[in-house]
Amino acid sequence: MSTHADHRTVLVPEGLAGERVDAAMARMFGLSRSRSAELIAEGHVQVDGSEVMKSDRVHAGAMLEVVIPARVDPLEVVPEVVEGIKIIHDDDAIVVVDKPVGVAVHPSPGWSGPTVVGHLAGAGFRISTSGASERQGIVQRLDVGTSGVMVICKSERAYSVLKNAFRQRTVDKTYHALVQGHPDPWEGTIDAPIGRHPKYDYKFAVMGDGRASVTHYETLEAHRFASLLEVHLETGRTHQIRVHMSALKHPCVGDITYGADPVLARRVGLERQWLHAVKLGFEHPESGDYVEYESSYPDDLAHALDVIREAH
Question: Which of 143, 172, 261, 289 is catalytic?
Answer without folding.
Answer: 143
